[in-house]
Specification:
Length: about 280
């Protein structure tokens, strides 16, 4: 369907809300609503990249967002029941159900922050679709970032310095998303967090480091460029210089020139200039 009758959708959502004490019935009705708005005859472009590789509905853009927004009071008024709904929806095989679970978690009162952080940490230990990871970071952090941001930063720190590379990857993604809204005086802490990753010869995290550097460069060109030059001065590995070359487009011409000079002046230990992929 091309047009949405919001009055009808609101009535459907209001009925859904009455089922909050029965997770299985709530889940079934949720799917009934999304199936109603699923565009069965809609043809996507052949080369279009799917938002998620999980099973998903083809919905008009408003439907899921409107449903989540209208059900926000559930998390505030009935948090204990909503925790059970979250558990129910996390077992679902559809992307929209997983996203809905992250939205419910993000709307829980701040007094439930420890429960939300435990949920998020446990979720992020699982093999997940990238779209689900993005939803966890964007949605589940909502109330915590507003009312207790230090707790979210503690979670990012825990992920970054985990011994599991999967945790490090999602920690870097969460850090990249956190930086734009952070205060300038937090930059030294972020530089400290990312420095070890920049110095690591392992290429497996490079694509996760890149959005962090982009966010830092947007926040402060000069300080971020100085960090990269400092890393180059402390490293004798040519792989670090090659990594940092990929970040040059994030900087203005003066900063770019200084970084390039630091790359050229990097003292290389023989044997580190070859393209070593043994760590992959």
């Amino acid at each position: 369907m091309t047009a949405i009758d919001l009055t009808r959708l609101d009535q459907q959502i209001d009925h859904l809300a009455t089922l909050y004490q029965d997770p299985a019935a709530f889940q079934e009705e949720f799917h009934t609503i999304l199936s109603f708005y699923h565009r069965y005859s809609h043809r996507k472009q052949k080369d279009a990249v799917p938002k998620s590789f999980m099973r998903n509905y083809d919905l008009p853009e408003k439907v899921l967002a409107h449903t989540e927004a209208r059900l926000k009071p559930l998390s505030i008024v009935h948090p204990d029941e909503v925790l059970k709904l979250i558990d129910q929806f996390w077992t679902d095989t559809f992307y929209e159900a997983r996203e809905f679970a992250t939205s419910l978690a993000g709307n829980l009162p701040i007094s439930y922050s420890e429960s939300v952080l435990e949920l998020v940490y446990n979720w992020l230990q699982q093999p997940l679709d990238q779209a689900v990871i993005d939803a966890i970071i964007a949605n589940s952090s909502r109330t915590i970032l507003q009312k207790a941001p230090e707790k979210w930063k503690d979670l990012i720190n825990r992920l970054l310095f985990s011994s599991r590379q999967q945790s490090q990857k999602v920690g870097l993604l969460a850090l990249a998303r956190l930086i734009p809204s952070s205060a300038m005086d937090e930059l030294p802490m972020f530089f400290g967090w990312i420095r070890g990753f920049l110095l690591s010869p392992d290429p497996m995290l490079d694509k996760y480091i890149q959005p962090v550097i982009e966010a830092l460069a947007l926040k402060s060109q000069q300080e971020s460029a100085y960090l990269l030059r400092e890393v180059l001065a402390d490293s004798n590995d040519a792989r670090i210089g090659r990594r940092i070359r990929h970040f040059l487009d994030f900087f203005d011409e003066p900063s770019k020139t200084r970084i390039l000079t630091a790359i050229k002046n990097q003292v290389i230990i023989p044997g580190t200039s070859s393209k070593d992929t043994n760590n992959e």
